[in-house]
Amino acid sequence: MNRLLSVALCALLMSACGGDGIVNNDEPGSGGGSDPAANTNVASQIQGGVAISEHNGPTTTNAIDEDNDTHWVSESGTPLLIKFEVVEPVQKIVVRKTASTLHSGSNPDIVVELSLDGLNWKTSAITDPDNADIPCQATASSSTHIECTMSAVDAQYVRFTSQNGKAYEIAEIEVLAFH
């Protein structure tokens, strides 16, 4: 309860935009093409992304600094919240980590969620395709990364939570919006 309140307070302090959930833009012409040359890593600190966590707080920016040589270490059950500068049409999420095994499917080790307002969350299928609100059109994974390509989903926040007693060294989180 205390962590949930802290995350909600962080979201409010980060001046969340209004709204009551995620908009999934499956309609043709709804924005966001698939031209890789037109993508932007909206989570990047360089693009105005802000990262907050109660665990290893001073190093949270390492997860969004576009430097694979720096890391943020997660803690099971403690989320990393990233806020983009504005609402973005997210179409791809990539998590780069140090080499380690990652359980996916039912009861995954990492949960990835998106939100318009920092309060109402939708789960990405990046690690749990059977229990997700946002399906992946394509996925890829290895011992050092996981990724999900999806139809455009409007969001201003992304939340990463390690669970099952696992912690990970996150080298970089990319949240790509195609403009």
Brief write-up:
With 179 residues, the chain is mainly β. It has one helix at residues 2-13, and strands at 23-24, 39-41, 50-52, 72-73, 80-97, 110-115, 122-123, 138-141, 145-162, 169-178.
At the first level of CATH, what is the class?
Mainly Beta
Helix/strand class: mainly beta
3D shape: globular
CATH 4th-level superfamily: Galactose-binding domain-like
Low-confidence stretches: 1-34
Helical run tally = 1
How would you characterize this protein structure?
Strand 8 and strand 9 form a beta hairpin. The longest helix is centred in the N-terminal third of the chain and has 12 residues. The chain is mainly beta. It is built from one helix and ten strands, in the order αββββββββββ. The chain has one domain: Galactose-binding domain-like (Jelly Rolls, Sandwich), CATH 2.60.120.260. The relative contact order is 0.28. Helices cover 7% and strands 38% of the residues. The N terminus is likely disordered. Strands 1, 2, 3, 4, 5, 6, 7, 8, 9 and 10 form a ten-stranded antiparallel beta sheet that branches. The chain is globular.
